[in-house]
Write a structure and sequence with these properties.
By secondary structure, the chain is α/β, with parallel strands linked by helices. Helices cover about 20% and strands about 30% of the residues. It has an eight-stranded mixed β-sheet, sandwiched between helices. A six-stranded mixed β-sheet has the order 1-2-5-6-4-3, with no helix packed on it. Strands 10-9-8-11-12 form a five-stranded antiparallel β-sheet, covered by helices on one side. Strand 1 and strand 2 form a beta hairpin. It binds S-adenosylmethionine (SAM).
């Protein structure tokens, strides 16, 4: 549609009226105006909105909505009072039914543009059983001077003071309230900068990040250990080691990532506390898990030991598993040419995806099948391009809505070696 410059009456800021065409990777709305491509935050497809340009970069501009002239058909009233200010949720303006296809489109867009995959396979999408109250881990920021506790505001390091967060599981919401009470009664003092929280069956595990090592606050205690049982396996962990956020989706994620894989040798890269390690250990005669965080590998070894000690249909002590504390790139560089044939390799890297040397190491290792679990479609697509160029075929893509109310999405890509 045509766009027009105009000055809003109140503050003389130049605004543009545009129509949002669709949602792009990163969760922004796409619009065009004055010869530029606009990325509009917190938009819904079909919205006609008056926007202000925040930043220009060549032919691209980043914009925010000043006024909704006409709401698109999928726009809903965001229920959270902090929406727009809090940096946490950027999809609350979309109905839950609209969030799911928008995420599929984001994945497809990344596969085409960044992965060079002209015709991506059909992408299945599994919704979250609960689009609210799903988040079982969180990172909260504290500003002691201003007595604020919550998440960073959008695009800033200012702490948005959040009393109630609609995506937290009830145990974390309660924990947030307890921390707020401590903040207000001055028992949460000293050098606390942020708090990692993870909910388990036994309660909440908290890990505090301190501003300086000298000033240890009075309430600082050992990070509590908790457990969760997923698809019949028990996992011990604490807030200092990664554990997935949306627990009800995990059995389906495990099934999609592992499926009927079985055989002699398998590798679990970025294994964390062993979410995929345990089910893989039941299916392969030899398994190696690699993870950089020493606290996570300590839990992974413990989880393997515990799983092996349990009476069960497998009767296995799980002595077939080796957990290695190392950066994946270092370990692959040293070992990929000497390991022998690998039937199955699973990788589940952080948002940044795999490093170049990680992909080079995987290609040197040449596993027969690869399962890539990703929480960022852009880095997934970038890495798939390299794997496909290295002689792999993309068999399937499945998406899991692990992070409702945000543009983030979990994806499992399965590949097979062409040789
Ligand atoms: C997305 S988590 C996945 C963990 C595990 N697979 C799970 O599902 O619970 C990514 C993990 O990679 C680890 N990590 C990050 N960079 C790494 C690297 N270069 N080498 C090895 N592990 C790394 C993190 O500590 C984290 O545990």
């Amino acid at each position: 549609m045509n766009s027009t410059f105009s000055a809003s009456a109140d503050d003389e800021v130049k605004t543009l009226e545009v129509e949002i065409e669709r949602i792009l990777p990163g969760g922004v709305g796409l619009a065009h105006a004055e010869g530029r491509t606009l990325f509009v935050s917190l938009a819904a497809p079909g919205d006609i909105v008056r926007v202000v340009i925040d930043r220009v970069s060549g032919k691209v501009a980043f914009a925010s909505i000043r006024e909704i002239v006409k709401a698109g058909p999928e726009r809903v009233e965001p229920p959270c009072p902090y929406f727009g200010r809090c940096g946490g949720c950027d999809f609350q303006q979309l109905s839950y039914e609209a969030q799911l296809p928008a995420k599929v489109e984001i994945i497809r867009d990344c596969l085409r543009r960044l992965g060079g995959i002209a015709e991506p396979p059909e992408i299945s999408m599994m919704p979250s059983p609960d689009p609210w109250h799903y988040r079982a881990r969180a990172e909260w920021q504290i500003d002691l001077a201003n007595q604020t506790l919550g998440y960073f505001e959008r695009g800033s390091r200012t702490v948005c003071d959040v009393a109630e967060c609609g995506v937290l599981v009830p145990a974390l919401q309660q924990q947030l309230e307890e921390l707020r009470a401590q903040l207000q009664s001055n028992t949460l003092t000293g050098a606390v900068r942020d708090i990692q929280a993870a909910a388990g069956d036994e309660g909440v595990s908290l890990a505090l990040t301190l501003r300086s090592l000298e000033a240890v606050p009075a309430h600082k205690q050992e990070t509590r250990e908790v457990t969760r049982t997923i698809a019949g396996e028990r996992y011990h962990f604490n807030a200092e080691a990664f554990f997935q956020t949306n627990l009800p989706l995990l059995p389906a994620l495990l099934e999609s990532a592992i499926g009927d894989a079985a055989g002699d040798a398998a590798i679990d890269l970025y294994c964390g506390v062993g979410l995929f390690t345990l089910p893989l250990a039941r299916r392969f005669r030899r398994l190696i898990g690699v993870e950089a965080n020493g606290r996570a590998t300590a839990f992974a070894r413990r989880n393997v030991e515990y799983a092996g000690s349990q009476p069960g249909p497998y009767g296995s002590s799980l002595a077939n598993v080796r957990i290695i504390t190392a950066r994946v790139g270092d370990w692959l560089t040293e070992n990929s040419r000497s390991l022998g044939p690998v039937d199955f390799l699973l990788l589940d890297p952080p948002r940044t995806g795999a490093e170049n040397r990680d992909i080079a190491g995987i290609l040197a290792l040449r596993p027969r099948r690869i399962s890539y679990v990703s929480c960022d479609p852009a880095t997934l697509a970038r890495d798939l391009k390299k794997l496909i160029a290295g002689g792999y075929s993309l068999d399937s893509i499945a998406a899991f809505d692990m992070f409702p109310q945000t543009h983030h999405v979990e994806t499992v890509a399965r590949l097979t070696s062409n040789n």
